[in-house]
Amino acid sequence: MPQIITEQNLRNLIDLLVKESKVVVGPKQADSVVLYQPLAAGSELTLDSLPRRSAKELFFPICENILSYQRLDGKMQVTDVDRSRFPETVLIGAPPCDAASPAILDAVFSWDYNDEFYLERRRKSTIVGIACTQGDDACFCTAVGLAPDTDTGSDLFLTPLKDGSYACKAVTEKGKALVDAHARLFGEAASADAAPFAEQGTEKLDLVKIKKWLEGHFEDPLWEKISDICVGCGSCAFICPACHCFDINDEGSTEQGSRRKHWDACGFSKFTNHASGHNPRDVQNKRYRNRIMHKFKYYDDKFGRTLCTGCGRCVRACPVGIDIAEILSTINAKQD
Amino acid sequence: MNAKANKNQSSCIEPSYYQAVTQAIRTQAVQVLKDGTVAGVVGYLPGRRKGTARPALITTPEEAEKLIFSPACVNNLSVYLTKSKKGVLKQGRIGIVAKGCDMRALAGLMGESQIKREDLFIIAVDCAGVYGSRAERSESVTEANIARKCHECTVHHPEGADFVAGAATELSGLTPLEAEEMARIEALPQAERWAFWKEHFSRCIRCMACRQVCPFCYCEQCLCDKNRPQAVENSPRPAGNTAWHIVRAMHLAGRCGGCAECERVCPMDIPLNLLNRRMAKELKELYDYEAGLAPAEKGPLNQYKEDDDQSFIK
Amino acid sequence: MSRIGVFVCHCGENISRTVDVEQVASAAGEIPGVAYACDYKYMCSDPGQNLLKKAVAEHKLDGVVVAACSPRMHEKTFRKAASAAGLNPYLCDMANIREHCSWVHEDKKLATAKASDIVKLMVERVKKGKSLAPITVPVTKRALVIGGGIAGIQAALDIADAGHQVVLVEREPSIGGHMAQLSETFPTLDCSQCIMTPKMVDVANHPNITLHTYSEIEKVEGYIGNFQVTLKHKARSVDESKCTGCGICMTKCPKKKIPNEFDQGHGLRTAIYVPFPQAVPNTPVIDRENCTMFQSGKCGVCAKVCGPGAVDYQQEDRFSVEAVGAVVVATGFKLYSIDRKPEGSPIQGYGEFGYGAIPDVIDGMTFERLASASGPTGGKILRPSDGKEPKQVVFIQCVGSRAREKGISYCSKVCCMYTAKHTMLYHHKVHDGQAYVFFMDARTPGKGYDEFWRRAVEEEEAVYIRGMVSRLYQKGEKIVVMGSDIQVGVQVEIEADLVVLATAVQAQDGADLLAQKLGISYDKYNFYSEAHAKLKPVECATAGIYLAGACQGPKDIPDTVSQASAAAAKVMTLFSKDQLERDPVVAKVNEKYCVGCLACKKVCPYGAVEEKEIRDRQGNLVKVVAYVNPGVCGGCGTCQATCPSKSVELDGYTDEQIMAMIESL
Amino acid sequence: MHAEAKQHDFEPKIVAFVCTWCTYAGADLAGTSRMQYPANVRVLKFPCTGRIDPVFILRAFQKGADGVLVSGCHPGDCHYMAGNFHARRRFAAFRALLDFVGVDLHRLQFSWVSAAEGGKWVEVVTELTERVRAMGPMLEFKSLEHEEQWSAFQAMADVPGVVNTPELKEAYDKI
User: Fold this and answer.
1) Model confidence over C549-607: pLDDT tens digits?
2) Taking every annotated instance into account, which residue ranges of this chain make up the domain F420-non-reducing hydrogenase iron-sulfur subunit D (chain D) (predicted)?
């Protein structure tokens, strides 16, 4: 029989981890939204809705300093970030569509350049994923090859059971270590009846076929058709578990300031604006095309993975109702 | 204000009302496309998901048959006249479906020389209300799922359009949520007001959805994207976020028509329209000005009177 | 990296007494981008300026900050020096560590810290500064003179004599102003009209002067070299082109008992009238409020008797636009009245003098008319109430002037002298009369002035009593004047037949409104402000507008004439070139980013913003943007603060400069 | 008239945005009249209050000002005719906005000080300085400057100049 943890013990586990000076991050209510945030106690964990932002910010913060500078005695002093001081972190309560994202992003952050900011946070984190029971008509994880019960990316994976407790599966050594260290909170399952998983609104997509179509259709009337209503905001990219573009800005004065890395989005008109004033993606549909291309072709070309977990956040958040699942279905259905 | 204000009020807006508006829009859009009055119509099409809708530019009578008006038709389509649809205007007159609140933006844009009345064919919606942000998409609209802005709507029955679709029956007895919330915040001690906004602004991720959907944020170079000099920090940190939202509210003061799109699209649920409404209230009190009721040559912040209030100046 | 030079001035000890200038210089040397910093005793002196010039060359400086006095004092000096050293003058700025620091703080530590901060601010400003080149604009060599008193007449004649066209505008029916009303003038006692009227005639006959009387300024647009002034020609009801000035209309007019303003209400005139016999032009005007024809429609005598048919009852106010390059403002003064003032007025009347209700308490100008040979009494001093010759006359000085409790704290400057003159005129005309003068001090700075005053006291037997009058009242035919003689320390009571008040000189009614039309500044008494009290006493802060006479502050005739000639000289200087170089602090539009909302156009006080169409190579309209006419732009920058995208920028005050300054705080 | 050199626990930073024609000249007059006022104020000169963008005020607070003064010509006195009238409306609106987001308006003073009002300049500056001194530092914007989103996990090294990536070290040494 697999191990289980009751909901109360899951909350107790959080309390214990907090006591151990670990940073525990999980879905938490903040005004009207649920966000991944550090939990001060197990009672703060909210498991009844998908957080508005993905869990990627745990490794890839919205904004972080990457160095600071100050003029001291006439000489510029540069101070690096002491990454050894990044805290040990446990992410609890991430559904598969969020838990899977670091596994996808590891590739790009350790490719031609090892992004130690990302990687150090990854090394110091343990992900406790949880099977999803709350899908809606915007969800399409199954369409992109995941499922409500996929444990990809999780170190420890929880499956909600009908009796309210969770079946536990240690996916990695990190996960096993977490269970072993707090063994008394885990017990034997009385029954292994899993709660029903979330329903999905879309059919399974042929990602290979889609990629193939994209390869041949950099120029296509489709782009203008689907994206001419895009207003060029970054909400889809910012709440996406897989989008990982960032910008670097120096902020401050000539005397002191910080160099900051923060989220950026290919939907922004200035994203590809050259210093010369030339902008190769001069209209919105070229920018939107890049979003699709990057997710379903370029990233696959480079890293062999699709840059989408089907969480449906962009579908829900798009101010003008652009529906990526619908677009993928359209491409999937194309014959040429 | 509303010459033909409909006094019949109810507690639920039935789907039949939306169907009637839809039918009227379709008929009118088909006609103006067929007779060549317009080169295209900006309207709404249904979304893939049940009970959703999205903006669309259609150019053929066939497509016009698919136009809808439903409680999900929340967007202020006037944003397309200054941004991505700018090109369309050059090919001729364009039709636009507009609710009363959207028409205030159209009036404002005319006053700011961004569009000309003669370039538009306005298909106005006599509007009973639309869904609130993330509201339950049930078929009928009630106080439970109507948008916050619709609670205090004063422009259900738009005037000055080329065509008005439908006849709205307003929901009765709606609580003025925004006014109450604004009064609540105004009554807070100053430090708590700061804490309230700090909490909200800190959550901001600078996705710029608020800016991008705003009909009045049509600058080609946003002050807040500039880095020489940098007036507002680019990075999504509490400091820059606060500055951004203050600057945004200031730039919209006296211009914002109150469509509340900024607030609707905010993925972080920041109550941005409160800021806009607060500024509108101030300008109404000080200068008796309300934005967007008619195209105005000058807004309240680009005109003056010699005896304007200066009680705050020593 | 910039190479800024910082020069810290001691200003003798004016700065160095409270600011450690060496420390300021050494701190300035530490500011990034500062290549050279030093301190010097007098930066504005020749050696100081040479030091700056040398340093620019030696240290290859690309910007200069002079930490010294106010830029209002010496900015031009140092910009000129920087320019001579090959630097763009707009890359030279002043850090005001004197007026804004050393003179207002005593704590040396705090003052030094502040001075260093001020220097830093200005260094940041210069670092982000741009080279600017002066803007040239054409000059319309035609001047407008507002006011036809002695100031306006003198300025107009001088400019006209230099060969330039002059438009002279006077709101009364005749030029002449207050000087035409005077009897004799101090300190020489020559007859005012004898010296004034020839000048008036010169104006009328000058080929370069166009005279508009009974006219006012309606609107002023444009800028130095290029003003468009709208004049309102009030309906005279007499066609100037037809009238021969024969005067028959006046002799036949049945309405004959209207108090004549020119005689301070003591003489009489007709409804169709010229203010005084020597009026220029000698064309009458109908006083419509007193004319039977206008009031009841029945009369028409003047029209009937007028041979050339010049009388025109239908005439309406007419407007004309004059293009001029410079404006001389010479609108003069009015006299304070002791009457009760409206509720809340900052200026008070004199209840203790009866609020002007006692007929034999008159002001100095009325006395002038009584003493004038052309006045209502033919030059005899007769008191208004009963026409008797007064034997005891009390003159009271400083009525309203230097009287803070009455709301005016300044000295009216001319009263001491004209009162002395009045006592003499009185003594000459009423040999057995006695003049008493209550005075605070006798202020007689001027050539021959003190001698004149002494003559009044010593030879003309005026009794000067140092002290104030606390009250006066009518008692039978007499006026009891109660005052104190502070020199002797006794109360004085004089039963006078006539009391003459030397009332204060005030700015003209409507002076503030005219200033607002012209865009010039004025002080709290509505006297017009010069650009600099000492060094630019004739210029207004608004370029192309000059001041002459008492509109700027109380002045006597010699000073007025001097200033009028000075203003004329300034106008001639402006007219000496075909093109004028203007300060390049003007707004420019970034056409790439301007979206043509035209908010800038809506707020521009100068109407400098125009719409400009941007077209592609095929001639298709791409967009409409704003365009700022640099010749019209006044440089206020309201457009930039209004522009949401900052697509219009004011040179010399760019956002980059200001933000850099704020960052450095 | 001699100001006492009092020691205060807190010396506020006051930033004044003034127009060059009236208030700057008024401050000059205070100088030529040798009036005394607190040394806390730093003056930024503008051609006109019409040029003063509300963003500047915001920026000044962000960059550490404890109090801000905006001063220009009295209505009707504007050298540019109407700049101060436009500014008056703009600042009336901006004040309301700042108030609504919870900024204490006692830290923001507007005034008309003419070229003739050296005394008023002294009065306004002294009053604002003393009021803000009593209020203490303006912490709201300043503390925001140091706040991060939670995920940033502030981890700057304690010792300035610590550079612990070889690439950065190499790049830094080249400067």
Assistant:
1) 999 999 999 999 999 999 999 999 999 999 988 889 999 999 999 999 999 999 998 77
2) 14-136
Q: Which residues of B touch A231 (CB under 8 A)?
A: 79, 83-84, 209, 212-213
In the three-class reduction of DSSP (H, G, I as helix; E, B as strand; rest coil), residue C499 is classed as strand
Query: What is the pTM assigned to this prediction?
Result: 0.78
The shortest CB-CB distance from C516 to any of D15, D50, D76 is to D76
B205 and B151 fall within a common domain? no
Q: Cβ–Cβ of B302/C624 closer than 8 Å?
A: no
Test D97 with B191 for CB contact under 8 angstroms. Answer: no
Q: What are phi and psi of B45, to 5 degrees?
A: -120, 155
Residue C82's H or E segment, with its range, is helix C71-84
D161 contacts in chain A (CB < 8 Å): 72, 77-79
Mean pLDDT of B13-26: 94
**CA-closest candidate to residue A207, choices A300, A96, A72:** A300
pLDDT score at C72: 92
Residue in D closest to B187 by C-alpha: D100
Residue B298 lies in a domain: no
Give the best residue of C1, C4, C593, C663 to mutate against chain A (max A CB count within 10 A): C663
Q: Name the residue in chain B with its Cα closest to that of A232.
A: B212
pLDDT of residue D33 exceeding 80: yes
- Best mutation target among B186, B205, B226, B312 (most D Cβ atoms within 10 Å) is B312
Examine the domain organization and report whether B141 and B36 are in the same domain: yes
In chain A, what are the domain boundaries?
3-333
Domains identified in chain B, total number: 2
Residue B161 counted as domain residue: yes
**Distance from the C657 Cα atom to the nearest Cα atom in chain B, whole angstroms:** 8
Residue appearing with tokens 């444009």: C222
Fold of the domain spanning D14-135: Rossmann fold (3.40.50)
Q: What angle do CA B117, B119, B121 make, to 5 degrees?
A: 80
For domain C337-506, the CATH superfamily is FAD/NAD(P)-binding domain (3.50.50.60)
Chains near B with 3+ CB pairs less than 8 A apart are A, C, D
Look at residue C461 and give its three-state secondary structure.
coil
pLDDT at A265 over 70: yes
Identity of the residue in D152, D155, D161 whose CB atom sits nearest the CB atom of A78: D161
In terms of residue numbers, what domain contains B60? 12-165
Chain C residues 127-186 with a CB less than 8 Å from chain A: none
B62-98 confidence digits (pLDDT tens): 999 999 999 999 999 999 998 655 556 667 899 999 9
Tell me, which fold does domain C142-234+317-332+508-575 have in CATH? FAD/NAD(P)-binding domain (3.50.50)
What span, in angstroms and rounded, lies between the C-alpha atoms of A238 and A228? 20
Residues 16-35, chain C, touching A (beta carbon < 8 A)? 30, 32-33
Identify the pLDDT of residue D167.
Answer: 64
Residue A199 pLDDT greater than 50, yes or no: yes
For chain D, domain boundaries: 14-135
Pair B152, B194 in one domain:
no
Q: For the segment C89-143, what is each residue's pLDDT rounded down to a tens digit?
A: 999 999 999 999 999 999 999 999 999 999 999 999 999 999 999 888 899 999 9
Q: Which CATH class is domain C587-664?
A: alpha beta
pLDDT, tens digit, for every residue of B205-251? 999 999 999 999 999 889 988 888 888 988 999 999 999 999 999 99
Same domain, B122 and B227: no
The letter for the amino acid at C364 is G
Report chain C residues whose CB lies below 8 A from the CB of B220. Answer: 592-595, 645
List the single residue in B49, B80, B268 with the smallest CB-CB distance to A52: B268
CA dist D154 and D150 (Å) reads 9
Q: Which residue of C has its CA nearest to D29?
A: C99
Q: Above 0.95 for ipTM, yes or no?
A: no
How far does Cα C265 stand from its chain's mean position? 28
The pLDDT confidence band at residue A151, using thresholds 50, 70 and 90, is very high
Contact in structure between C293 and C255 (CB atoms under 8 Å): no
How many Å lie between the alpha carbon of D2 and the closest alpha carbon of chain C? 8
Q: What is the CA radius of gyration of chain D?
A: 20
> Quick check: helix, strand or coil at residue C98?
helix
Instruction: Report the 10 Å Cβ neighbour count for D27.
Output: 30
